[in-house]
């Protein structure tokens, strides 16, 4: 090995060690902040449950669960995480524009990735729980509960983009663009702590991470994230509620059409069908975009970055990541398997 190769190897070793140390601190900090938040949230929910029983709290259960289950993440977990990791070196991507055509292509790619991730998560949840597990996040927003809509449509996307795109990518970009995008998406998926969301959140995180790295504009990813979440928190619930979807579906399955019902709901049923068609078309376009454009995604080399495989190895051998992974697996299994012992 000549002197140049030796210097490159030494530089890579130092960068890999720096990566391992950085990731360990990031993951351990978020794990500790999250566990503290869980204890606070669970304690508040127990107090709220007693308050609802004796009548001192008159809010509905969904609102209370949303406020005490999700808001502490934004008010306790994320601020504490930022405080614990504020001294880690960071570098923001350069500001640039992708162009409308390129942005449209990337947004379309989200749809098949999102659907594929949801299918994988639903299948695994059903298999592991014997079909008894339910998606509590969907339940919270499906009834158009105002607080659930605010959290799912606005607070979630804004805070999550600041943390998982802006903060995490800025703090890992020096190890390479490909690595920073992968790690932020992985962490984003894992932080959802349930099988229903982990896979599609990871997939969406890859696209949003790429957009942030190429544009340096977290506002763009916030708006896309808000748009994606709005489909499941506002658009679909309104269409299903106004069309009385389940009543209509029962009529179709039993081949017993009520003309009075159809006349009263025909507009909303038509809009629901139109939405379904457009969503299906978006999936087809997205698949085509993925096939045609996957090799055209620009990943720039950065000075001092480490090989992607080396970065991944450093990540999964870091103490903080091991702890965070174990914590995530335990929480996911508890959520999936608990229905087996409570029903």
Molecular structure report:
The chain is mostly helical and about 350 residues long. It has helices spanning about 5-55, 60-85, 100-130, 135-140, 145-170, 175-190, 195-215, 220-245, 245-255, 260-295, 310-315, 320-340. Helix 3 packs antiparallel against helix 7 (about 195-215) and helix 3 (about 100-130) packs across helix 10 (about 260-295). About 35% of the residues are buried. The model has no long low-confidence stretch (mean pLDDT about 85).
Helices and strands, with pairings:
Layout: H1 3-54, H2 61-84, H3 100-129, H4 136-142, H5 146-172, H6 177-191, H7 195-215, H8 218-243, H9 245-254, H10 259-293, H11 308-316, H12 319-342
Helix pairs in contact: 1-2, 1-11, 1-12, 2-5, 3-7, 3-10, 3-12, 5-6, 5-7, 5-8, 6-7, 7-8, 8-10
In brief:
With 343 residues, the chain is mainly alpha-helical. The protein is 82% helix and 0% strand.
| Proportion of residues in helical segments | over 70%
Tally of distinct domains: 1
| Alpha-carbon Rg, integer | 22 Å
By DSSP (H or I, 4+ residues per run), the number of helices equals 12
Q: How would the global form be characterised?
A: globular
Q: Mean of the pLDDT scores?
A: 87
Q: Which residues form runs of ≥5 with pLDDT under 50?
A: none
In percent, how much strand structure appears in the residues? Answer: under 5%
Number of strands: 0
Gap between N and C termini: 65 Å
- Main pleated sheet: none
């Amino acid at each position: 090995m000549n002197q140049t190769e030796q210097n490159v190897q030494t530089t890579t070793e130092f960068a890999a060690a720096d990566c391992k140390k950085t990731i360990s601190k990031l993951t351990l900090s978020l794990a500790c902040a999250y566990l503290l938040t869980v204890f606070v949230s669970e304690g508040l929910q127990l107090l709220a449950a007693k308050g609802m029983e004796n009548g001192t709290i008159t809010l509905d259960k969904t609102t209370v669960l949303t406020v005490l289950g999700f808001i502490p993440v934004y008010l306790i977990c994320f601020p504490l995480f930022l405080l614990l990791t504020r001294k880690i070196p960071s570098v923001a991507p350069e500001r640039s524009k992708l162009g409308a055509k390129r942005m449209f292509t990337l947004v379309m790619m989200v749809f098949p990735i999102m659907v594929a991730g949801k299918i994988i998560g639903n299948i695994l949840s059903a298999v592991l729980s014997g079909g008894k597990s339910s998606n509590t996040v969907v339940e919270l927003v499906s009834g158009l509960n105002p607080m659930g809509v605010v959290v799912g449509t606005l607070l979630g996307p804004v805070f999550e983009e600041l943390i998982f795109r802006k903060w995490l990518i800025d703090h890992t970009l020096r190890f390479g663009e490909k690595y920073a995008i992968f790690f932020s998406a992985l962490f984003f998926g894992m932080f959802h702590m349930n099988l229903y969301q982990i896979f599609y959140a990871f997939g969406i995180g890859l696209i949003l991470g790429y957009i942030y790295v190429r544009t340096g504009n977290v506002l763009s990813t916030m708006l896309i994230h808000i748009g994606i979440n709005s489909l499941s928190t506002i658009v679909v619930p309104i269409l299903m509620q106004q069309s009385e979807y389940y009543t209509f579906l029962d009529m179709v399955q039993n081949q017993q059409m009520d003309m009075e019902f159809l006349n009263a709901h025909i507009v909303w049923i038509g809009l629901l069908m139109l939405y379904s068609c457009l969503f299906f078309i978006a999936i087809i376009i997205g698949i085509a975009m993925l096939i045609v454009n996957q090799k055209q995604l620009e990943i720039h080399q950065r000075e001092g970055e480490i090989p992607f495989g080396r970065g991944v190895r450093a990540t999964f051998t870091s103490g903080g990541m091991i702890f965070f992974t174990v914590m995530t697996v335990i929480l996911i299994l508890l959520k999936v398997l608990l229905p087996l012992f409570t029903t």
